Amino acid sequence: MADKSFLTWPFFDDSHRALARDLEAWCERELPNFHFDEASLDATCRTFALKLGQAGWLRYAVPKRFAGPATTPGDDKLDVRSICIIRETIARYSGLGEFIFAMQGLGSCPVTQFGSEKLKSKYLPSVAQGKSIAAFAISEAAAGSDISAMATTARKSGNGYVIDGEKTWISNGGIASHYVVFCRLPEMGEKSFVALMVDADNPGLSISERIKIIAPHPLATLRFKNCKATEDAVIGKPGDGIRIAHATLDVFRPTVGAAALGLARRALDDSITHCGQRSLFGQKLSDFQITQAKLADMATSIDASALLVYRAAWARDHGVERITREAAMAKLFSTEAAQRTIDDAVQLFGSRGVVAGETMERLYREVRALRIYEGASEVQKLIIAAQLLKPVKQAGALQGSHD
User: Fold this and answer.
1) Burial degree of 65 (CB within 10 A; 0-12, 13-18, 19+)
2) pLDDT by residue (tens digit) across 342-399?
3) 316-320, long-range: CB within 8 Å, 24+ apart, which pairs?
4) Is residue 164 scored above 90 in pLDDT?
């Protein structure tokens, strides 16, 4: 059982503690039997999304008023602390299961934050039920973390838009019911972008390639050719695409840190058990000071990660509109720390740690991508530095205007 003392921290209230308790019980009951092979990956993801919806966990991925059987008055905000708790908890049991939950939230967050009432009513209830699969399509081969360099275009045509271009490394690509697609608006200027909702059955959208990675999950390259989208498909306003993307990443970058935290906690828990049982040179592995030092470093990194993750989530939940610096710090530190923690755990397990199918080998594969997606670690450092230097640049600009 992972350490839950962090739930006593002032970042949480009783509803979060109840969520963590109930979800833990569900994971203990349901996830030990959650297995898949690559041949059945797509079907497994769809089935598990339905399972998450039926159990009620996906109601945290959308605003409360769209999470029930019918639309009811309520708050339109996401509780980011709840999303973090869910991602962290499920990640300790299944990286793929955590991914499936996370993508329902990330793929619908632009609609949650900026979509029209019509878009929200059309898409969010089925996402919460797990009946439709959401996806966030922003990355391109020549524009990964540099999202402003995207080349996919949406040109105005009649009462809508025509999309042309290609997106790649798109999670849920090939199984999604709909995609939030970010495009350049050439008619509005070089720095103008738009976010559009595109259904998977749109005849102008095709899957050009399925991509296999070291920790399997649905990933694909999407091709748009004369893909028509109506005016109603615009999320927010034309020209607001980059702002929508950044606001979405502000919400979900801390939750990536939470997923890394869950993987790291599993590595530490299993390492403590293993070191207490493994005999070496006439004593337990846990009796060696070098082992104790390694475990202490792992535990300290985990607590520091949790503080950064839940600080960012708490700030967002308490009305701080932009948590760009906090979110970047949480993602950067937690994913890097989780990589180190799991690498240390593999070392403690020795040969067993690199055997295919063993927990440590799975964790080692699952953690690696977290340091890349939603902005690589190096990009997070640039974001943090830009936030730190912003007052200096503003002061310089003000001084220059007075000269």
Assistant:
1) middle
2) 999 999 999 999 999 999 999 999 999 999 999 999 999 999 999 999 886 766 665 5
3) 316/80, 316/250, 316/251, 316/254, 317/77, 317/79, 317/80, 317/81
4) yes
The yes-or-no verdict on residue 141 having pLDDT over 90 is: yes
Instruction: At 358, list the tokens.
Output: 């063993």
Spatial CB neighbours of 43, under 8 Å, sequence gap ≥ 6: none
Task: Record the pTM.
Answer: 0.93
By CB atoms closer than 10 A (0-12, 13-18, 19+), residue 365 is middle
Q: Do residues 390 and 383 make contact, with C-beta atoms less than 8 angstroms apart?
A: no
Residue 38 catalytic? no
Nearest by Cα to 348 from 263, 260, 280, 265 = 280
User: Which has the closest alpha carbon to 183: 170, 167, 169, 203?
Assistant: 167
Which candidate in 30, 361, 374, 378 is catalytic?
A: 374
Question: Domains, the chain, ranges and CATH?
Answer: 7-132 (1.10.540.10), 137-239 (2.40.110.10), 244-391 (1.20.140.10)
* 402 three-class SS: helix
pLDDT confidence band for 148 (50 / 70 / 90): confident
CB atoms within 10 A of CB 397: 9
Residue 182 pLDDT > 80, yes or no? yes
